[in-house]
Amino acid sequence: MKKWQLYALYAVLLVGALALGLAAGGAPPELAIPSVGNPTPPGIEVLKTYLTERGHHVEVAKQLPEVLPPNVSTWVIAAPQGHAYSEQETQRLLDFAGAGGRLLYLAPRSASAQEPLNKALGVKQSHDWLPPPGLADVGDAAGASVEIAVPVGPLAGLTSLRVSQRPLLSLTADDAVPLTRPAALWVRRVGEGEVWVAAGADLAENKRLDLADNVAFWEQLAREGLLVFDESHQLAREHSSTGRNIYAFGAQLFLVGLAWAYARGKRMAPARSRQRDHHRSSTDYIESMAQLLKRARVDSGLMTELSDTTRRALTEALGTLPQLPVADLARAFEQRTGQGAAQVSAFFDFIEAHRQSADSETYWEASRQAATLEAFARGRRPQS
Asked: What is the pTM of this model?
């Protein structure tokens, strides 16, 4: 087989596998969904648990009812991207607000995620970013505080809210009023009720709930009456994919069969005579491998890479700056996780002490410590 023919065959197989994989689709990453069942930083499980334990009446709606109950004080939509509200569902939400309810819409920053609802409420996506925080806000390096300019309703008595620096939005309605400075939270009248709109689920996320007056804002909302979190559109609709999967499997099997038939039907080179193998016993192999592992030394570059990878993982999970010193990173770790800051300092000291003389056991011990730190930082239980 000529070299260009071999490359062409590989390209065809690669493109075919990629096309079939894209056709099969995939589920959205559930840990990134702002859901009341998500305990990770982007989720809102902590908010729901907090309000419930404080004695407030909080419910979760898995399906949007035909008529929203009149005893609901606030209906919360937390940045759903699973599938869009239809025009009929949007009208139900507007009817609820028009009858005197409060609709709190935390709009997803993707303009196409909820197009009918955004259009009905006059939501316009913006390209403006909030300024980065100062050194005092290193615990939330990706966030920014906004000042409450109009302290009405659940904002009464509050001074600031904590949101993301990512692009804001605005309302195009003539009666829309920005409640913060810069304009991160808006309100407008709809009939006898109100519609409150903000960009993203920043105000409700677990990672910012204890910052500024975010939790006080939610508690004052819950004091006014029944608060419902709408989870009906967080996940994509389930479609039967049995037939599509069968076709994809058949197509992959066909491509593999073609490649096998081509490879078997044309020899790459003349046949060689069979060589006689002299096999050693299994015990010899095991003993040799044990001696090799015992004498093995880990290259210093592996320890350096482990240190850099762990630092990046911790800064991403904690939301800190990449160039933060180890001592400050350790304090941020302790504040976020409740674990001792000494664990972070001890890990990086361990790396430095064994960077040039690490054996395989030392490297695996360092890897275990790194996995434990990352698990605590991401809110997971470390594996034993």
From this structure: 0.57
